[in-house]
Specification:
alpha+beta; Phosphatidylinositol Transfer Protein Sec14p; Jelly Rolls; globular; SEC14-like protein 2; CRAL-TRIO_dom; CRAL/TRIO_N_dom_sf
Length: about 400
């Protein structure tokens, strides 16, 4: 049985009855069967675990004044301007649609201008707003609406930014906060325009997601997602930019009056750090007939080495080798990514490998075949540690 109202097994019916007896005083204003079953489904109908989860949620609500956040919260201008995302309409089930367009987002600049607490508070505000919209839809449609659809569009985004420690910590914090306080609120998470490195990021986040949430995530590259979206969302509820027919009051195909999109973050917007805006990539000039090496020391196995690079005008040769540490008995370097001449002037190149041994991993940018031209190269490299169960324990969910 599904565990929803009207589709309960005898054991689930019994668990619902016990949950009402044991946690009735914790339910607050929403004490419907639908509400009880959300907590029970989130804990596989373990009554005690569901009760404990609800108790912790109530403590969070009290600590951070979530019952009045929709009335009292006023985002800082920096957050309002630069934190992407917004609600554009309602899916075919009746729930709110939230769209997060990552194109051109500068994560470093965002995190210089806003603390993790600022961002988590605003995301929590959006969660509470979404629940309010669900309640309004339930009254309007005459049936229970308790979920929303979330679209993450990674087109035009350098995802290697998200693999930096501060960004990973923030993302982990929000996922933990969401799973602990808003169980069973997702209808579906739809990821579109996912680049190759998205797999690395997703694998790092998987340990923080429940099995039920993972089942509700659909991932697409550059193709076939528009048809998929329109199977779940009426075209008049989906902005033109994502395959629908909706525009906002300004006839904007992205509905920017409803959905915040990334715009350049100027240095004067930063929060008093004294730091200037930095480019996401390191830029160098590689002379003709020269190989430029970028050595990365990896002390432990099972880390992931991620890279992204581009050239301004011409192609470049690229390969990766591993050089052993001095005391491991090995002497020869090991070829990990075979030499290729890549059109990095046409499209930014990105990829990742698992570092199965400690050593010095060397990215080689080869311009030896060019007799006359130097090449201007921009690159970014990130080493990402594997996710562990311990990571779950140390993630902060403070707002």
């Amino acid at each position: 049985m599904s565990g929803y109202v009207g589709d309960l097994s005898p054991k689930q019916e019994k668990a619902l009855e016990q949950f009402r007896e044991q946690a009735g005083d914790l339910l607050g204003r929403d004490d419907s069967d639908h509400a009880c079953l959300r907590w029970l489904r989130a804990r596989n109908f373990d009554v005690q675990q569901a009760k404990n989860m609800l108790q912790k949620h109530n403590s969070t609500r009290k600590q951070h004044n979530l019952d009045t956040i929709l009335k009292d919260y006023q985002p800082r201008p920096f957050i309002k301007k630069n934190l992407i995302g917004g609600c554009c309409g309602f899916d075919k089930n009746g729930g709110p649609i939230w769209v997060y367009p990552f194109a051109d987002l500068n994560v470093k600049a965002l995190l210089r201008g806003a603390s993790a607490a600022d961002i988590l508070e605003h995301m929590t505000y959006r969660c509470e707003l979404s629940i309010k919209l669900m309640e309004e839809q339930s009254k309007k449609l005459g049936r229970n609406i308790e979920t929303h659809t979330v679209i993450f569009d990674f087109g035009g985004f350098s995802i290697i930014q998200s693999l930096q420690p501060d960004a990973l910590s923030l993302l982990s914090g929000f996922i933990s906060l969401y799973e602990a306080n808003y169980p069973e609120r997702v209808q579906e998470v739809i990821v579109i325009n996912a680049p190759a490195l998205f797999t690395v990021l997703f694998n790092l986040m998987k340990p923080l997601l429940t099995g039920r949430t993972l089942q509700k995530i659909s991932i697409f590259g550059k193709d076939n997602w528009k048809e998929y979206l329109l199977e779940r969302i009426d075209d008049d509820q989906l902005p033109v930019h994502w395959g629908g027919t909706k525009t906002d009051e300004n006839e904007d195909p992205m509905c920017r009056s409803l959905i915040t999109v990334a715009t350049p973050i100027m240095e004067e917007e930063y929060k008093g750090t004294g730091m200037s805006k930095a480019e996401e990539m390191t830029w160098i000039t590689i002379d003709r007939r020269v190989v430029h090496e970028v050595p990365i020391e990896v002390a432990n196995s099972d880390h992931t080495l991620c890279w992204q690079f581009e050239t301004e005008q011409h192609d470049i040769g690229f390969s990766i080798v591993r050089r052993p540490v001095q005391d491991d008995g090995e002497h020869d370097e090991e070829q990990l990514h075979p030499w290729q001449r890549v059109q990095s002037n046409v499209r930014a190149q990105e990829g990742s490998i698992i570092c199965d041994k400690p050593g010095v991993y060397v990215l080689k940018f080869d311009n030896t075949y060019s007799s006359y031209r130097s090449k201007k190269l921009g690159y970014a490299v990130q080493v990402v540690a594997p996710a562990t169960s311990e990571d779950e324990q140390i993630v902060s969910t403070d707002l």
